Amino acid sequence: MLGNILINESVVSAEGENQKQLDLSVLAKGVYFFSLIQEGVEVKTIRVAVQ
Questions:
Q1: Which pLDDT score is estimated for 1?
Q2: Exposure of 32 by Cβ count < 10 A (0-12 exposed, 13-18 middle, 19+ buried)?
Q3: Does residue 42 contact residue 29 with C-beta atoms inside 8 Å?
Q4: Angle subtended at Cα 32 by Cα 18 and Cα 25, rounded to the nearest 5 degrees
Q5: How far apart are alpha carbons 42 and 36 in whole angstroms?
Q6: Domain-by-domain residue ranges, the chain?
Q7: Cα(6)–Cα(3) distance, rounded to whole angstroms?
Q8: Which of 51, 47, 37 is nearest to 1 (CA)?
Q9: d(CA 1, CA 18)
Q10: What Cα–Cα distance (Å) separates residue 37 from each residue in 1, 24, 28, 42, 44?
């Protein structure tokens, strides 16, 4: 694992459920980790396999 930041975006969210679409077609095949950070605190990290 290299640990490079490939996408860094800030979004404004509203109370309730929020969705954000990412174009993963620009990424090479492999396994990636996406982290959601709210007010400087990591809230959730998910693993995504791009094939």
A1: 66
A2: middle
A3: no
A4: 75
A5: 6
A6: 24-51
A7: 9
A8: 47
A9: 29
A10: 20, 19, 24, 4, 7
